[in-house]
Amino acid sequence: MLNSGTMKKQARIAASILAADFAKLGEEIKRAEAGGVDEIHVDVMDGHFVPNISIGPPVVKSIRKVTDLPFDVHLMISEPEKYVKAFADAGANRINVQVEVDTHIQALEMIHDLGIQSGIVLNPDTPAESLKDVIAEIDYVLVMTVYPGFGGQAFMESTLPKISAIRRWLDDVNQEAWLAVDGGLNQATIGKACAAGADFIISGTSLFRAEEGIAAVVKEIRKTAQCQSD
Ligand code: DX5
Ligand code: ZN
Fold first, then answer.
1. What CATH topology corresponds to 12-229?
2. pLDDT in tens, the chain (230 residues)
3. Which residues have CB less than 5 Å away from ligand 2 (the ion)?
4. Is 172 a catalytic residue?
5. b/e for 64-84, b at 16 or more Cβ within 10 A?
6. Which ligand has the shortest distance to the CA of 16?
7. Domain boundaries, the chain
């Protein structure tokens, strides 16, 4: 289905496991699946591109056994070309690389050759124009709405004009691509991101830490994202 004019895609929701309890990661993923999320978002950090370290391919391989949901793997690492194969072999369905990394085009070509989806990610201060060499070729653009490295941060409204600009650009050159947002997405901020044109919501804290349970939050997100995209 085309993502332009009146023909909008249903927004997708991915649960970021960074906010899950890692002591029972398999159960947490099943809880997210039972709550109705569409994908599992896996944050990979190398302590170099971002000032934090998270998880690698062995963990992805282990959690691959507990769900059939797609794995959306977000590489916040300096040398993605060295690791894309390992993450694909471990079970990633989409691998996303940061446009600020010099080797992002090489990594995207490798991901494409591996036969899985590719995504490009922009940090809050990175301009939309940085996508010019790749925007027509990718399956997904992810606008970071916080500085990457940590969960639980506040959504940066300063990213909204960039989301709108990328929405218009995608409508012109790549209508099939998703426009994702990641960081600080909750009941108060999702509507703003969707109004600007996002159709793929990534959230950790608002899902895994929800007192009302994941299903209730997913229902609210779908309502908000849907009414903005009709
Ligand atoms: C930040 C990560 C995000 C983060 C989102 O570096 O890329 O995916 O886990 O978490 P919340 O929803 O807590 O902002
Ligand atoms: Zn992420």
1. TIM Barrel (3.20.20)
2. 444 444 567 899 999 999 999 999 999 999 999 999 999 999 999 999 999 999 999 999 999 999 999 999 999 999 999 999 999 999 999 999 999 999 999 999 999 999 999 999 999 999 999 999 999 999 999 999 999 999 999 999 999 999 999 999 999 999 999 999 999 999 999 999 999 999 999 999 999 999 999 999 999 999 998 755 44
3. 43, 74, 182
4. no
5. beebebbbbbbbbbbebbebb
6. 1
7. 12-229
As a whole number of angstroms, the distance between CA 48 and CA 208 comes to 27
CA of 18 to the centre of ligand 1 (A): 7
Q: Which of 38, 43, 72, 199 is catalytic?
A: 43
Residue 178 neighbours by CB under 8 Å, 6+ apart: 9, 12, 119, 139, 140, 141, 199, 200
Number of neighbouring beta carbons within 10 Å of residue 93: 15
| Distance from residue 56's CA to the centre of ligand 2 (Å) | 14
Check if 38 has its Cβ closer than 6 Å to any atom of ligand 1.
no
Helices and strands of the chain, counted as H and E runs: 8, 8
Single pTM value for the model? 0.95
Q: How far is the CA of 5 from the centre of ligand 1 (A)?
A: 30
Regarding the beta carbon of 167 and ligand 1, being less than 6 Å apart is answered no
43 is catalytic: yes
Ligand closest to 146 (CA) is 1
